[in-house]
Description:
Blueprint: H1 2-14, E1 33-42, E2 45-54, E3 59-63, E4 66-68, E5 80-83, H2 88-92, H3 95-109, H4 113-133, H5 139-178, E6 185-190, H6 202-215, H7 217-223, E7 234-239, E8 242-243, H8 244-247, H9 250-268, E9 277-281, H10 289-298, E10 305-308, E11 322-326, E12 329-333
Parallel strand pairs: 5-9, 9-10
Antiparallel strand pairs: 1-2, 2-3, 3-4, 6-7, 7-8, 11-12
Helix pairs in contact: 4-5, 5-6, 5-9
Amino acid sequence: LKSNLLEALHLAALGFSPRSRSEKDLVRWGADRFVVRLEASHGETPLVLAASCDLAGRKETRVDGVAGKLFSRLVGHISVVGLYPEDLHYIRGGPEGRRSFLDALACQLDPPLLETLRDHARVVRQRNALLKDSDSPDPQVLDVLDQQMTELAVRILERRMDLVEQLVEPVSRLHRILSDGSESVDLWYRGSYGEDDLPRKGPALLDRLLRRRDMLRRAESSARTTLFGPQRDDLSILLSGRPSRETASQGQARTLAIALRLASAELLASHPERPPVLLLDDIFAELDGPRRQRLAHLLPRAGQSFLCSPHRADLPFEVDRTFLLESGRLRETV
Length: 334
């Protein structure tokens, strides 16, 4: 399938697929593993990224020949922004998809954040296991986990809130252009902390998390799970002042999703040494004529773009090179 080409590029650059977070599910039917290998360059410096996974979930990666097992090692070498049909779940789906969108973008801008996210998820799992397995959790162990969890959470929250603030203007502007200015867009970071507004930085933010922990002690003992933290937060996307998840039509949701992705590309392009590569999966076929033309004018021209389409006529501009996928083989056409 033509979309598999974009999926392979996405996985090699970001360490995950845009359609599934279970790597073994990406193995082709009848095969025992998949292998992806990407060759690129930064100026005169060559770069080779490779990833593989078998049906048992055994993974391997290589970055310029250096072997490892974590797919997260692939992040930070090539910036990628994809526009996919599945992007509608950022608008209409649950909070997990929007958290994933923020974190994936934040990790491209700040790769060390990936380790913080991984550590936070590990500590939350340990805390949940302690709450679940004991009617009276050891208070000393719980205090240690609380300290670790909240300190890691502060770093994640600071980065997420900064990112949302950076996204507001370009998302609003790009959406206004795509929708011909008929609707307004706003973004809010919604925390799980009992109040609408969170302190933006360090000590005040940590104090808010600790106060929320104290307020939820009894509720968490009853629920036997952690009831606050970045793993329960959400990005609220408002369309003309109303929650887009509840009110946006199919076309409105698609336009919002495209605006989010293009705004991401703008932020990544602020690092001129690593301009983002755009991956567009049959995106023009789902838009009406005017929106198709407006999107074509908005696409950045500085970096590389890879577009998949069942029909050449769906693309509202000329392209540099065209490849045809037939019977599982790719060939360049004149």
